[in-house]
Amino acid sequence: xxxxxxxxxxxxxxxxxxxxxxxxxxxxxxxxxxxxxxxxxxxxxxxxxxxxxxxxxxxxxxxxxxxxxxxxxxxxxxxxxxxxxxxxxxxxxxxxxxxxxxxxxxxxxxxxxxxxxxxxxxxxxxxxxxx
Length: 131
Hints:
By secondary structure, the protein is an alpha/beta fold. The protein is built from 6 helices and 6 strands; from the N terminus they run αβαβαββαββαα. The strands form 2 sheets. Strands 1-2-5-6 form a 4-stranded mixed sheet, sandwiched between helices. The chain has a two-stranded antiparallel ribbon with strand order 3-4. It has helices at about 1-10, 25-40, 50-55, 75-85, 105-120, 120-125; strands at about 15, 45, 60, 65-70, 85-90, 95. It has a single domain (about 1-120), classed as UDP-N-acetylmuramoyl-L-alanine:D-glutamate ligase.
């Protein structure tokens, strides 16, 4: 994953990290932190517990299900974004996104398309090798 993320960084392709199950095991949490430390991640997309865990806050997670965090999702998204240094999308009953407002679309399925369309035209060009 790190090699793929670095290759995307070199090619100017935004990296979206969905840290499934972060907080449920040490391996998942450490792996996500390793990726965040070695890859320039544009967007982290996860549930409240995953975002809170990566932001260093307490969270209740069982498997991949968020059982709860303190505060509202908007505040959590903003806090996590400041800690992680990237846009954070927190999914829940009402999704929340830090730093920017997405277009009216389904966050889980369209966030990669929205982020890509928001990138400068030069960074959206594909290299001949990527075709």
